[in-house]
């Protein structure tokens, strides 16, 4: 259930709808916005109404649908809608709509709204893979991002007909959370626009046999919060995630892994041209030296000892072998005692730029919606982050990362 907000402070959201088959998903996105207390003005293109009709949008939003620059001319809709908005969210954003927005065209009410909006603008593209990968589309996306718009990466999956690939509109729940993350920032700029970041999340699993594994209590929520807040600040995000059961943030490139060795391979590949790498995952320190080929059975003689070997130290390797000038590397330290002393020792040992140190156990950090931490810097600085939502800690991490990135 979405938590309603006070109507007097309800944000004004403009939902722009492009002419794509995925327009039906925007109905669910609209419902999530309205049921959580947002005021939503739907602005579909004329062609979008071929996919979902005007009565549907009006019924779900509780407002007349704005469709043309010549409707209610005395209210100057082509200017006022954008001026009043706290967020413009375009879903689906077709290749044609991205091209018109990138080139500043104003042939209909939606493109007029995009030109007059001074609030954050989010595009959720949806199209066939070939269209998404076309140089013209890539150039238009780059232009929009350079101007501060947030262009989410499309998801991979089933497209129109029998085709599959990258170009699918993310699920409405993930799109809604992306919109809320942007609204939480208000009018703050997309200060990570043009940056590419890698975030790891979740707890790795080290196989004992085909059924059992060694693992830890990490839920992945902090890593997912880091990915979501980076997206809301305009970054391109690669999320390397061990098993979590969480819905990935809309717009992230997701690389699923299971073991520490797999995570190392994925992170090292993804970080090649990244501006920052944040290792929020709880990576197992050890793994079984051998995996049993079949399920280990009880024999009555007691279990055989499991020989363990050390896993690779991914964080130390990232800090030691940086692949881009000015690349910022962030680690996490989950401690149960002597938290700061252990954290400072780990920071010196790993060689990263920032280390987020938090106390875990007894219901703290793992599996919760909130967190608190001290962020230690290699320069000797530190920042305390009080108890609060994991998104707040994530934003503070990105503040410190941003301040360390070379200017572009």
UniProtKB/TrEMBL annotation:
Its cofactor is Mg(2+); FMN. Keywords: Decarboxylase, Flavoprotein, FMN, Ligase, Lyase, Magnesium, Metal-binding, Multifunctional enzyme. It catalyses: (R)-4'-phosphopantothenate + L-cysteine + CTP = N-[(R)-4-phosphopantothenoyl]-L-cysteine + CMP + diphosphate + H(+); N-[(R)-4-phosphopantothenoyl]-L-cysteine + H(+) = (R)-4'-phosphopantetheine + CO2. CTP binds at residues 285, 295, 312-315, 332, 346, 350. Its EC number is 4.1.1.36, 6.3.2.5. GO terms for molecular function: FMN binding; metal ion binding; phosphopantothenate--cysteine ligase activity; phosphopantothenoylcysteine decarboxylase activity. Residues 12-175 form the Flavoprotein domain. InterPro entries: CoaB-like_sf, CoaBC, DNA/pantothenate-metab_flavo_C, Flavin_trans-like, Flavoprotein. It comes from the Bacteria. The keyword Magnesium applies. Residues 1-196 are annotated as: Phosphopantothenoylcysteine decarboxylase. Residues 197-408 are annotated as: Phosphopantothenate--cysteine ligase. Binds 1 FMN per subunit. Pathway: Cofactor biosynthesis; coenzyme A biosynthesis; CoA from (R)-pantothenate: step 2/5; Cofactor biosynthesis; coenzyme A biosynthesis; CoA from (R)-pantothenate: step 3/5. It holds the Pfam family Flavoprotein. Gene3D superfamilies: CoaB-like, Flavin prenyltransferase-like. One of its GO terms (biological process) is coenzyme A biosynthetic process. Residues 192-402 form the DNA/pantothenate metabolism flavoprotein C-terminal domain. GO terms for cellular component: phosphopantothenoylcysteine decarboxylase complex. Catalyzes two steps in the biosynthesis of coenzyme A. In the first step cysteine is conjugated to 4'-phosphopantothenate to form 4-phosphopantothenoylcysteine, in the latter compound is decarboxylated to form 4'-phosphopantotheine. Catalyzes two sequential steps in the biosynthesis of coenzyme A. In the first step cysteine is conjugated to 4'-phosphopantothenate to form 4-phosphopantothenoylcysteine. In the second step the latter compound is decarboxylated to form 4'-phosphopantotheine. In the C-terminal section; belongs to the PPC synthetase family. This is Coenzyme A biosynthesis bifunctional protein CoaBC. It comes from Nocardiopsis composta. The gene is coaBC.
């Amino acid at each position: 259930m979405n938590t309603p907000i006070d109507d007097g402070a309800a944000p004004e959201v403009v939902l722009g709808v492009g002419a794509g088959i995925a327009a039906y998903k925007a109905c669910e996105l609209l419902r999530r916005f309205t049921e959580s207390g947002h005021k939503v003005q739907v602005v579909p293109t004329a062609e979008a109404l071929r996919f979902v009709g005007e009565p549907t949008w009006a019924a779900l939003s509780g407002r007349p649908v704005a469709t043309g620059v010549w409707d209610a001319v005395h209210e100057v809709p082509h200017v006022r809608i954008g001026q009043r908005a706290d967020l413009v969210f375009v879903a689906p954003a077709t290749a044609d709509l991205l091209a018109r927005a990138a080139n500043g065209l104003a042939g209909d009410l939606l493109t007029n709204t995009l030109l007059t909006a001074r609030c954050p603008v989010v595009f959720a593209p949806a199209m066939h893979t070939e269209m998404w990968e076309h140089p013209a589309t890539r150039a238009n996306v780059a232009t929009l991002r350079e101007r501060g718009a947030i262009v989410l990466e499309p998801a991979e999956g089933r497209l129109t007909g029998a085709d599959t690939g990258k170009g699918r509109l993310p699920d409405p729940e993930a799109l809604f959370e992306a919109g809320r993350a942007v609204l939480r920032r208000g009018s703050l700029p997309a200060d990570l626009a043009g940056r590419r970041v890698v975030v790891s999340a979740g707890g790795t699993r080290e196989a004992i046999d085909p059924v059992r594994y060694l693992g830890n209590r990490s839920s992945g929520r902090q890593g997912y919060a880091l990915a979501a807040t980076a997206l809301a600040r305009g970054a391109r995000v690669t999320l390397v995630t061990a098993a979590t059961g969480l819905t990935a943030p809309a717009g992230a490139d997701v690389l699923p892994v299971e073991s520490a060795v797999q995570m190392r391979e994925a992170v090292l590949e993804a970080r090649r041209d990244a501006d920052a790498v944040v290792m929020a995952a709880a990576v197992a320190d050890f793994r079984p030296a051998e995996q049993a080929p079949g399920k280990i059975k009880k024999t009555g003689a007691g279990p055989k000892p499991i020989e363990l070997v050390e896993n690779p130290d991914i964080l130390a390797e990232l800090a030691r072998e940086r692949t881009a000038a000015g690349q910022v590397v962030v680690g996490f330290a989950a401690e149960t005692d002597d938290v700061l002393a252990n954290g400072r020792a780990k920071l010196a040992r790993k060689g990263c730029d920032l280390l987020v140190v938090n106390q875990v156990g007894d219901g703290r950090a793992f599996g919760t919606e909130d967190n608190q931490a001290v962020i230690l810097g290699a320069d000797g600085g530190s920042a305390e982050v009080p108890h609060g939502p994991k998104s707040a800690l994530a934003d503070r991490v990105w503040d410190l990362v941003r301040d360390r990135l070379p200017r572009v």
